[in-house]
Amino acid sequence: MKQLIHSEFKRYFSKKSWLGVLGSIPFMIALMASQSLKANQIVTLDRVASFNTFALYTPLHKIFTFYLFAVVILLVVTTIASEYEKSEIRMVLIRGYSTRQVFFVKLMMIVLALFIFIVGYVACSYLVASVIFEHQSVISSFLSFDDLTSVQVFLMTLKYYGLLFLILAVFAMVIAFFAMFTKSVISTTVIGLLIVVASFGFYMVTQLVGRYISGIDINQLNLLALPLMQLKGAYQIVAGHTTSLHQSLTILGSYFILFMGSSYYLTGRQDQFI
Hints:
mainly alpha; 11 helices; ABC transporter permease
């Protein structure tokens, strides 16, 4: 098993798709910095973005949400879906490993890649922000009624990206299941993109329904969609809403059990995939 993990690690992190994901980070940060500079020119009362808040505020952009989930889809498609489609996984199975072992090691590599990706994004964000934006000792934020110190904002940023990692890791498990089930690059990509687009459609529907039906907590309902959990729910948690934290962890746990359990069952049926 250790040999399999070592082999997949070397193979995975030398892929062009992974290098492309890392290379996309500076471009996304440049785009977010451009948007933040424009926002700073419009809002004069309090700076929208500063050195302290840049990494924390950029995920508010919907384009950033699409970027994050597109990265997950790309990592899963190039790691699992393409190898099932091209039957490359047979070469690994010949070495005496089970489909289940191979699948979960590949999923482990994806989750590790997401962790490295997030750490790299946060580090680059602070690096760029140190050059472009001003430093603040006292910060006003929509996440708190009181002014915050730079340390408090930094801890909020770490908390947000920790939650983001959990959300993206669970989303990767969902897409990995469909990649294994369909054994198709195109089908997996389409399903992944449909989930993201449908999440925003779900948000529009809940906003419309919420106007006419009382007693429904729209914010909590939106947590069911992982992209909305990243865009809306994570900020509620960072702001200290314990109810959102408990519900988000429950939803993430449910997705984890459902799709990891299904993957565990299906990978046990080796003949279906060989």
